[in-house]
């Protein structure tokens, strides 16, 4: 198994096909040859078969070695309730194999065919208002529908039986982006499954009533049947009901994933299984840190949001988090885009060099396969304006030339395949429960954004030229611990069950430095307040106590002065401190003028610090710089390039691979010789490396190698 639960077992990876003679008489690579996967979603069913020959010719030219096939093919594979047509898929897969292209075969269940929703409209999801989500788009199915499951699993079994022995079958791709459009379903099926889930979680109605705090507003339940998903209510629905529904919805999809997987494992135990996660942007419905243990290979889809000024940092953050979810083992970038997408309000083409930079940023964070949506740009349908490897303009196009150039370049990076991302010394905790619960309604402010807070700390680390890992809080509880981290930051860790509070207290008392951000440690796993003053779960450790929250209006800021000056926004706490606490900054004005805003305290052999507001980015950079320096963490990058260049490191048994990534549109020179003279080039891609310096072109990425001396 892969992911957070990984044991000493070697992680599984794509089962590359055995060497065989290709259609042109050449030999394909042996299965064990090192390579980076390169390819796309391939939808041959959208094209006449004459086009397929051209597809494989151009795939080979571009260096494509794997494609995902069949993702949205259900209606063609099973045209009616009792007829099947696998002929076209057989021919497509045979053709790919004859051309040395491996197949990541989808189970084809992502989007139910019209005959199914006609015969069984009860598989259609229902939104919180009670409206049916109709067919016409895709993924219109209820995760908990027994009827959907019956039909979908029959298809999975057919697929598994039919292709079990096909030599091109290299990985199973379960469904597609589970939960992309249907994570929250409020139907009667969902209601009934939610009740079952709650019964397992709480065991008794009394316990549920306690956890949900139903003494409030006359919500006490006397039978299980009274319990519903949080459908449209007169006013704020019960917060614990909302949080549990978020947990349940993630679990319901995970259970569905497991149901498909079990069939595949029975028929083809030797074929690895994946499903494409969506660790990106504000996609939050699925707790992937929890899902990772269920797949053999962690895969991710990532798209940049062009309107986001921190889009590139977000890419780096998401790639980093995906790597952590994968237990720092290699993962598979299943989708990103060669250029514009079609689903944002304005869709921008990528600039020259961006395809390479974005791809290599994923690779730097552990991706061993770089794939796109999709191979050939569609002529019809909702995604006809979405870029592809082979655009409408055809092979004589800048995009196809970049795609082919990059495919060739991946050959030079083959030695990186299989290496793991190197643990950073800074860990930033990330937690889905806190994401879900901290942004619920009826809070001190509706303006706080969990992901933005975590991103702000990550960006501040990058601005200091430091590497930071985005560590799922779940992994701390799973016993993976925080060993190796000298500085651990908990941004907006709102939900803190006692075992997590204890683990973090142990971490700081035994030599680590824990930094707790605004609106952290507020509630327990049931979303009940830790009483006695905020932040209850960390109050004793931090030596601070706050009695009130001070919400700030959207444009309102407060000044901080002291060792770490700056401005705060959105929320403040009225902090009082124990005598042994150092006050590093105080609020000058705002609701709590004069009270401590940033505090730090020695605990055991470590330290615990608190930041009682949302700091402006300059101040946050200073805070991270100061705490990192105190912990003895120094940037390997010279001051002049910090924030412009990101350094990410992977390591194998014998080498470290250093990825220098230029975030800017300017040429940047990094005096690498000053930090290490023994670097050799793996892939420069337009950069120049001399004995003294590495010069990166605008948006350039260079991959250098350093022999490892330690084990
Ligand atoms: C993903 C999806 C693909 C395609 C792509 C477009 O959500 O898996 O099928 O729709 O987005 O960006």
TrEMBL record:
So which domain of life are we looking at?
Bacteria
Q: Where is the active site?
A: 177 (proton donor), 335 (nucleophile)
Q: Which GO terms describe its cellular component?
A: beta-galactosidase complex
Q: Where is the Glycoside hydrolase family 42 N-terminal domain?
A: 41-411
EC number assigned by the record: 3.2.1.23
Taking every annotated instance into account, which residue ranges of this chain make up the domain Beta-galactosidase trimerisation?
A: 424-633
Where does the record place the Beta-galactosidase C-terminal domain? 645-706
Q: Where does substrate bind?
A: 138, 176, 343
InterPro entries from the entry? Beta_galactosidase_C, Beta_galactosidase_Trimer, Class_I_gatase-like, GH, Glyco_hydro_42, Glyco_hydro_42_N, Glyco_hydro_b
Q: Which CDD domains match?
A: A4_beta-galactosidase_middle_domain (cd03143)
One biological process term in Gene Ontology = galactose metabolic process
The record's comment on protein family reads: Belongs to the glycosyl hydrolase 42 family.
Q: What is this protein called?
A: Beta-galactosidase
Q: Which organism is this entry from?
A: Cryobacterium arcticum
């Amino acid at each position: 198994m892969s992911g957070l639960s990984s044991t000493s077992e070697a992680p599984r990876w794509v089962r590359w096909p055995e060497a065989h003679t290709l259609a042109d008489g050449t030999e394909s690579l042996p299965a064990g040859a090192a390579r980076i996967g390169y390819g796309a979603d391939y939808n041959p069913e959208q094209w006449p078969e004459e086009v397929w020959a051209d597809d494989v010719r151009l795939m080979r030219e571009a260096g494509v070695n794997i494609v995902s096939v069949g993702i949205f093919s259900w209606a063609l594979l099973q045209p009616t309730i009792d007829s099947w047509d696998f002929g076209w898929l057989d021919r497509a897969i045979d053709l790919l194999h004859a051309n040395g292209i491996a197949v990541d075969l989808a189970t084809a269940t992502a989007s139910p065919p019209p005959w199914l929703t006609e015969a069984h409209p009860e598989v259609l999801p229902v939104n919180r208002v009670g409206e049916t989500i109709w067919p016409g788009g895709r993924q219109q199915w209820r995760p908990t529908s027994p009827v959907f499951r019956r039909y979908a699993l029959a298809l999975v079994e057919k697929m598994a039986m039919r292709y079990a022995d096909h030599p091109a079958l290299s990985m199973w791709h379960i469904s597609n982006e589970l939960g992309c459009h249907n994570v929250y379903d409020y139907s009667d099926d969902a209601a009934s499954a939610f009740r079952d889930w709650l019964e397992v979680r709480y065991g008794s109605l009394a316990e549920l009533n306690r956890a949900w705090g139903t003494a409030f507003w006359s919500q006490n339940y006397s039978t299980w049947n009274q319990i519903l998903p949080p459908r449209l209510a007169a006013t704020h629905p019960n917060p614990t009901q909302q949080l549990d529904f978020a947990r349940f919805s993630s679990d319901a999809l995970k259970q569905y994933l497991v149901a498909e997987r079990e069939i595949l494992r029975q028929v083809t135990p030797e074929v690895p299984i994946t499903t494409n996660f969506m660790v990106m942007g504000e996609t939050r419905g699925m707790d992937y840190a929890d899902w990772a243990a269920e797949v053999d290979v962690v895969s991710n889809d990532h798209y940049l949001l062009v309107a986001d000024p921190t889009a590139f940092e977000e890419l780096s953050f998401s790639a980093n988090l995906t790597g952590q979810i994968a237990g720092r083992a290699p993962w598979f970038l299943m989708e990103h885009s060669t250029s514009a997408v079609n689903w944002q309000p304005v869709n921008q083409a990528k600039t020259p060099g961006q395809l390479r930079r974005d791809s290599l940023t994923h690779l730097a964070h552990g991706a061993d396969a770089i794939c796109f949506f999709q191979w050939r740009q569609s002529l019809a349908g909702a995604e006809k304006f979405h870029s592809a490897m082979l655009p409408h303009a055809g092979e004589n196009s800048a995009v196809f030339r970049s795609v082919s150039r990059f495919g060739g370049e991946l050959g030079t990076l083959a030695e990186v395949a299989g290496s793991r991302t190197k643990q950073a010394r800074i860990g930033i905790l990330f937690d889905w429960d806190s994401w879900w619960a901290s942004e619920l309604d009826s809070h001190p402010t509706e303006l706080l954004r969990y992901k933005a807070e975590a991103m702000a700390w990550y960006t501040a680390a990058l601005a200091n030229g430091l590497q930071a890992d985005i560590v799922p809080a779940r992994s701390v509880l799973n016993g993976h611990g925080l060993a190796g981290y000298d500085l651990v930051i908990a941004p907006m860790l709102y939900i803190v069950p006692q075992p997590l509070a204890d683990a973090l207290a142990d971490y700081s008392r035994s030599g680590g430095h824990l930094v707790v951000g605004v609106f952290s440690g507020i509630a327990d796993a049931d979303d009940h307040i830790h009483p006695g003053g905020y932040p209850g779960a960390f109050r004793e450790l931090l030596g601070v106590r706050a009695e009130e929250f001070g919400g700030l209006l959207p444009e309102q800021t407060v000044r901080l002065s002291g060792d770490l000056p700056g401005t705060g926004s959105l929320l403040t706490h009225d902090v009082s401190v124990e005598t042994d606490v150092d006050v590093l900054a105080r609020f000058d004005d705002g609701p709590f003028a004069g009270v401590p805003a940033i505090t730090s305290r020695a605990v055991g052999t470590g330290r615990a610090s608190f930041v009682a507001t949302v700091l402006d980015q300059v101040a946050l950079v200073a805070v991270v710089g100061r705490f990192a320096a105190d912990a003895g963490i120094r940037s390997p990058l010279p001051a002049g390039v910090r924030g412009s260049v990101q350094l990410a490191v992977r390591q194998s048994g014998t080498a470290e691979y250093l990825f220098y990534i230029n975030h800017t549109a300017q040429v940047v020179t990094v005096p690498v010789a000053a930090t290490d003279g023994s670097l050799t080039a793996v892939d420069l891609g337009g950069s120049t490396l001399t004995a003294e310096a590495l010069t990166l072109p605008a948006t350039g990425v260079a991959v250098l190698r350093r022999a490892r001396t330690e084990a």
